[in-house]
Design goal:
Rossmann fold; Arc Repressor Mutant, subunit A; three-stranded parallel β-sheet; alpha+beta; 231 residues; four-stranded antiparallel β-sheet; 10 strands
């Protein structure tokens, strides 16, 4: 947990330990958090946005260079722009202050459970998808575009693998929200659209004029596999 309010860190750390989380590292600065991330692997990382040495959005991007661990923002910044910024820079969830500690802990549990379910893939399920210049390996959690590995967060891989498993089908935003986020996300359509845009930047030649992950007006989104191995 990263927050410059020591009292909040102590309170949440105590609450987490009561709920069975016995290994909780606390950082009050971005630099301290980065040092922790270099040395350790975490199930979930919880960030404030307002920190003394670097804002949480920039910290999130730096953490994303090192790990795909789920990142949750826990902050007093409540505007729609703040929420979208948090999701755009790599956050998986955004919780605003004031908050109920048990609600935060429930969402942490949900994040961990979803990550475990994602890793425990059914052995009978297809683990590799190759569409033209796109190759996805679910066993290793890797995406390759034109033979170059492209870093993805766990949530991006979940959404992308869902499209790869169901090419040429239209899914509404609500369909995607329920399939990928379940009941532990923000509950608004912006969440899905942010992730769609993030994936487009990784697989499309022209993200602003997509040809692979398209919007069917009034219906939803559809993945159209590339026809060959090049853009």
């Amino acid at each position: 947990m990263v927050d410059d309010e020591v009292g909040l860190l102590d309170m949440m750390s105590a609450a987490l330990k009561v709920e069975g989380f016995h290994s909780v590292d606390k950082a009050t600065t971005s630099q301290e958090a980065l040092e922790y991330v270099k040395r350790n692997q975490y199930a979930v990382i919880v960030l404030d946005v307002t920190l003394p040495d670097m804002d949480g959005y920039l910290l999130c991007t730096k953490i994303r260079e090192k790990t795909n661990t789920p990142i949750m923002f826990l902050t007093a910044r409540t505007s729609d722009l703040d929420v979208l910024t948090g999701l755009n820079v790599g956050g998986d969830d955004y919780i605003t202050k004031p908050f109920k500690p048990l609600e935060v802990i429930a969402r942490i549990r949900a994040k961990i459970r979803r990550e475990q379910n994602y890793r425990e893939v059914d052995k009978t399920e297809q683990l590799e998808y190759r569409y033209g210049f796109l190759y996805l390996n679910l066993a290793s959690g890797q995406l390759f575009v034109r033979n170059c590995e492209v870093s993805c967060t766990a949530r991006e891989l979940q959404l992308l693998s869902f499209f790869f498993k169901n090419p040429n089908y239209i899914f509404s935003i609500q369909d995607l929200y329920e399939k990928i986020w379940g009941n532990d996300s923000l509950g608004d359509t912006n969440t899905v659209m942010v992730y769609i845009n993030r994936i487009r930047k990784k697989i499309e030649q022209a993200p602003n004029n997509p040809e692979l992950l398209i919007n069917v007006r009034g219906l939803g989104y559809k993945f159209i596999p590339p026809k060959d191995g090049s853009f």
